[in-house]
Structure formats: C-alpha cells, structure tokens
Amino acid sequence: MSTGRRGAAWGVLVLLGLGVLSGCKRGDSEAQQPQAQAPVVLGPTDVVRVEPQELRSGPVLSGTLQARRAATMRAEVQGAVLEMVVEQGQQVKKGQLLARIEDSSLQDQLIAARTSVRVARNALQVARAEEERNRKLSSAGVITRRDLERAVLARFQAQAQVSDAEARLALAQQEVGRTRVRAPFAGVVSERHASAGDIVQPGAALYTVVDPTSLRLEASVPATQLSTLKPGVAVDFKVGGYGDRSFKGRIEQINPAVDPGTGQVRLYVTLPNTEQTLLTGLSAEGRVASMRREVPAVPVSAVDVRSDPPSVLRVKDGRVERVPVTLGMKDELARLVELRSGVQPGDVLLRAPAGDIGEGAPVELRLSESPQEPEPGVGGGGTPQAEPPPEQPKPR
Question: For the structural domain made of 47-53+294-365, what CATH number should be given?
Fold first, then answer.
C-alpha cells in the first residue's frame, strides 16, 4: 500500500473516533440533564386575593356570657318536697309556683295561732267592757280609784296579748308561705336541683331561674387602653357556635380599680338578647369598635412576619415570588391585616408563606369549580403542550 493511501485511511479512522466520542458525550450530558419540575396545583384554600375590606381596631374582649339577672331559689323551711312543678328549660312568670314543701306541722301551728288571736280579742273585749263599767262606778263613788286603775291595767294587758297573738299568726302564715317556692321574676328555669320526695333543709337549692333577655360579659383589658373606653361605647361580638354572625353590645360599667398583679381593668358589657337567640355559658369574643377603615387586607396567615421586612409569597406568571410588604392596621378579631405597599388589589397570595412551596416554584391555579381548567387571567400556567410536528411526506 502506498504511503498516500495509508495516510488517508488513518485520517478516516480518526474522524470516526472523534464522532463516536462526541456522540457519547452528548448522550451522557442529555442523561444527566434533570427533567423540568412539574407545577404545583393550588386550590381556593391555598391562596387568597388582596381585596379592600373593612378593618376595625380596638381592645379585644373575651369571656363567657352570663345572665344579668339570675337567682337560685332555696328552701326556707325544713321538710319533704311534695312537688316540683316546672321542669328545666321551662319559661316562668313572676310569682309563678315552682315547688311545694310539706307543711302539715306548720299548718297546725297556723291553726293554733288563729285560735290564740280569737281568744285574745275576746279577752280584750271583756276587759274594755269591765273598764267602762268601773269608770261609771268610780264616777258615782261606788268603787275606789284603785279598782278603776286595776280595770285599766287589765285592758292594757288584754291589748298586749292580742298584739302578741297577731304577731304569732303572721309568723305562722309566713312559715306556711315559705313552703311555696315562687319565681322572683319572669325568666327561664336553667337548673332543677331537687326532686319530689327529697328531704331538704333551709338553704338547700331547688331551682335556678335566669332572665335570658339581657346577657352580660365580664372581661379585662390593659389599663393603657382605658382612653378609648367609657360606658355606652359599642362592642361588636362573635359568639361560639354562631359562625361569622356578629352581635352588638355596650359597655355598662368599668371597674374603678386596676388589678395590681396584671395591670388589667375589669369591664362589664351588656348584650341585648330580646329574641333569646343566645344562651348563657357560651364563649364570646368582642372588640370595642373605636376605629373603622376600608383598606386592602389579607388574613394574617398570608404574611411572613418573621422576615425583615415582612413579606408575602405572590403568584405571578405561573411562579411564586417573594414580595416585601408594609403592614398597617390590624383587626385582631377578624384576624386581618392591612397591606399598605408591595402588592395591589387583585394579587393572589399564598396563605402560608412558610409552607413547602418555595420562592420560584412553578404553580398552577385552579380556583374555579372545574378541576381541569385554571382560572383565566390569573398567572396560572402549567407547562404548555407542544404543537404536533407537521406530517412528513411518505416516501414513494
């Protein structure tokens, strides 16, 4: 083989080797390249929009609702309970009979007292007649002055016996009346503490009656906030078990003394309940409505207050970005906070900035009812699908 042919053959081999090496390197680089990250699907519970909302600020009050008027009816005499007339939860009128206690011995005492009154009154009538007769005899000189004085003294003693007998009769009547337990005011029986047949002693609880038409909340606030509080100021309430429904009350009294241990002042707030919608014992949370403003706001959970300055995670163009914001007014009761700068009304934010979705992560918003289509016009965007390649001509 000539030298020229041998050189050409070596050149071809070198070119083939280089092609094989470059192909291997290209294959290795393509194998090592990571696949594109799939977007995270977010639903309505994962995001929140920045929207103008009415925020209210003021001292927050919390406690348990209690009836302004409540009375525990107790036994005033000893004996067996004959009848418990009303049941728990039943409405009663003022003076309505609630319970009866056995009164046979008291009735005997009442009969004896009435008899004593009649006897004493008859004795007084006789003493008066005797006094009148002795006065006439004394005037005629038939009896001495001393005999007249004795007749007058006997009449005074008879009057005293009548007064004593009448007092004993009134006491016996009161004792019999105490065996009838009656409602002190119109209300509802909240508790029944005894049953028919029980032997009760004076002071034993029988019923608890409450007036549900007006409730009261006792709460404490820092003494530093007293400048915004005074009797008559309106208080907005939310009561456990009634969802987002709000109720209105007013500050009735402010305790004049500050608790030296806590620096708190006791407040008493009345809450009208004429429709008897609310029940005593429910937990309530209220706020003194000292200031109201309508501003762009979001739930407090959407703001990362640990960062400096505070920040939020906003969804824009299908990705998550961290945006510093300036906070303003805060509504403690509604748990909303004003965003003064950094975002605009209509922006979509993640509810939990400290979650697993990090800054720069691709996301897809599905805020409509249909789970297959993202909400239009809200930077949603998963990865667009590529168009199919054009059809190649078939070889002949």
Answer: 2.40.420.20
pLDDT of 21 reads: 46
Reference 292, options 39, 87, 55; nearest CA is: 55
Q: Which stretch of 137-151, 155-169, 256-270, 345-359 has the lowest confidence by average pLDDT? A: 345-359
Order of strands, edge to edge, in the sheet holding 311-316? 47-49, 348-350, 311-316, 319-324
With a CB cutoff of 8 Å and minimum separation 6, the contacts of 330 are 55, 57, 300, 336, 337, 338
Q: What are 121-134's pLDDT values in tens digits?
A: 999 999 999 989 99
Place of tokens 């806590």: 262
- 8 Å CB contact between 222 and 74: no
Residue 209 · residue 190 · CB < 8 Å: yes
- Per-domain residue ranges of the chain: 47-53+294-365, 60-68+212-292, 103-177
The share of the chain scoring above pLDDT 70, in percent, equals 82
Q: Which conformational region is residue 120 in: left (phi greater than 0), alpha (psi within -120 to 50 degrees), or beta? A: alpha
The C-alpha atoms of residue 225 and residue 2 are separated, in whole angstroms, by 108
Q: Cβ(40)–Cβ(382) under 8 Å?
A: no
**Helix, strand, or coil (residue 133):** helix
Q: Are 313 and 357 in contact (CB under 8 A)?
A: yes
- Name the residue with tokens 């739930």: 299
Domain 103-177 - what CATH class? mainly alpha
> Does residue 74 surpass a pLDDT of 90?
yes
d(CA 110, CA 103): 10
Mean pLDDT of all residues in 94-121: 92
Question: Domain 60-68+212-292 belongs to what topology?
Answer: Elongation Factor Tu (Ef-tu); domain 3 (2.40.30)
DSSP-based three-state secondary structure for 105: helix
